[in-house]
UniProtKB/TrEMBL annotation:
Pfam families: DNA_pol_A_exo1. It comes from Paramuricea clavata. It comes from the Eukaryota. Coiled coil: none annotated. One of its GO terms (biological process) is nucleobase-containing compound metabolic process. One of its GO terms (cellular component) is nucleus. This is Exonuclease 3 -5 domain-containing 2-like. GO terms for molecular function: 3'-5' exonuclease activity; nucleic acid binding. Keywords: Exonuclease, Hydrolase, Nuclease.
Length: 143
């Protein structure tokens, strides 16, 4: 049974660079003295099957905060630029970014924006380590 979990969340969609930058600055003030782990995922159109150049820009970046707030950044509408605060967050190794296959997202952001993302944690690796721990506890008779 799961107790004391808040499932309410806010989803905010951004298409404007300056509005996104301002809201990111505001949101990050909530975590100025904490270790922070953000959820991150990028979406883009694969053009390989269409016979076009396989290089296509990131269309959407999803950024989830510990309080349940999720920002959907429509980068395809931001004139091929990243908000300054987003770049700062993604390049900060002390702000952990977690996701499944996050290294592919990091590579894509590097290709499209010259961004070197730091502090990435791939949840597949975390899951494998946790699975090993659980299996060890079960075999040892622990809980």
């Amino acid at each position: 049974m799961v107790e004391n979990v808040n499932f309410s969340s806010d989803v905010v969609v951004f298409e404007d660079l300056s509005a996104c930058n301002a809201k990111l600055c505001e949101e990050m003030k909530n975590y100025s003295y904490e270790i922070i782990v953000l959820g991150l995922d990028c979406e883009w159109v694969s053009r390989e099957r269409q016979g076009e150049s396989p290089v296509s820009p990131v269309a959407l970046l999803q950024l989830a905060f510990p309080n349940g707030t999720c920002f959907l950044l429509r980068l395809c509408k931001m004139e091929a630029r990243l908000p300054d605060k987003l770049r700062e967050i993604l390049e900060d190794r002390n702000i952990l970014k977690s996701g499944v296959g996050i290294s592919e997202d990091a590579k894509k952001l590097n290709t499209c924006y010259g961004l070197v993302m730091q502090g990435c944690v791939d949840l597949r690796h975390v899951a494998l380590r946790c699975q090993g721990y659980v299996e060890h506890c079960i075999s040892e008779g622990g809980s």
